[in-house]
From TrEMBL:
Key words, A-Z: DNA-binding, Transcription, Transcription regulation
Domain HTH crp-type: residue ranges: 147-221
Organism: Siansivirga zeaxanthinifaciens CC-SAMT-1
Lineage start: Bacteria, Pseudomonadati, Bacteroidota, Flavobacteriia, Flavobacteriales
Domain Cyclic nucleotide-binding: 12-91
Recorded GO MF terms: DNA binding; DNA-binding transcription factor activity
GO CC terms: cytosol
CDD domains recorded: CAP_ED (cd00038)
PANTHER family, per database record: CRP FAMILY TRANSCRIPTIONAL REGULATORY PROTEIN (PTHR24567), REGULATORY PROTEIN YEIL (PTHR24567:SF26)
Protein name: Transcriptional regulator
Length: 221
């Protein structure tokens, strides 16, 4: 199982894209986005789901004070906007491209429902994906409610390692090369950027980790 911040370690694009189905392939196009382009906004009509062919997409929303809150950063093969399948008529979040060459496979809700009716296996995969996402959101809420900020950070780093990390053979350290900014990480663990920076520096002084803009090294215990 992947971390609570991401979907299963599987390229959903290869499983779900309508290009796999002859009756839908001829009428199916891809959408291209540049960095910072929005795929949809909060309150937009929810009539499609999306698969990422390539690139990265940020999912989030804006708080009442106007502050951006990041829910997840998704990459190739991952699904988003899936609540449209369940009957949600409006978006409760925004989706924004993080790469200059992001390619998205949009699937109309009617098309998705048709594919689900035609294939029980396809339908079960969709419901499994949605159920798994709800479980991760529940787990994230539990972390935010019941664990202190430092513990949330350490658990997030452990899970980030599962998605973006590898072991250094020489030292045994865990190397994490990730797509997040400090602002993103702070938002995901429910704290402020200054507090996150204090905790990272504290852990670095304790020789537990080293960090730079896109890499975190967790020292071998």
């Amino acid at each position: 199982m992947k971390s609570i911040w991401f979907f299963d370690d599987v390229d959903l694009f290869k499983i779900l894209c309508p290009h796999k189905f002859k009756s839908y392939k001829s009428n199916h196009d891809f959408n291209a986005y540049k960095k910072k382009d929005y795929i949809y906004f909060e309150e937009d009509t929810a009539n499609k789901v999306y698969l990422i062919e390539k690139g990265k997409v940020k999912i989030g929303y804006f708080s009442e004070s106007g502050e951006e809150v990041v829910k997840a950063i998704l990459s190739k093969g991952e699904l988003f906007g899936e609540t449209a399948i369940l009957g949600n008529f409006n978006r409760q979040e925004f989706a924004q491209s993080l790469d200059d060459k992001t390619s998205i496979c949009p699937i109309g809700v009617d098309t998705m429902h048709s594919l689900m009716r035609e294939s029980q296996t396809f339908s079960l995969k969709i419901y499994k994906i949605i159920g798994f996402k709800f479980k991760k959101l529940e787990r994230r809420l539990q972390l935010l409610l019941f664990k202190d900020t430092k513990t949330r950070l350490l658990e997030f780093l452990d899970e980030l390692y599962l998605d973006y990390g590898y072991n250094c053979e020489k030292t045994g350290d865990k190397i994490i090369q990730h797509p997040y900014t400090q602002k993103d990480i702070a938002s995901l663990i429910g704290t402020s950027r200054p507090t996150l920076n204090i905790l990272l520096n504290e852990l670095q002084c304790e020789n537990k980790l080293e960090f730079s803009r896109k890499e975190i090294k967790i020292r071998k215990k």
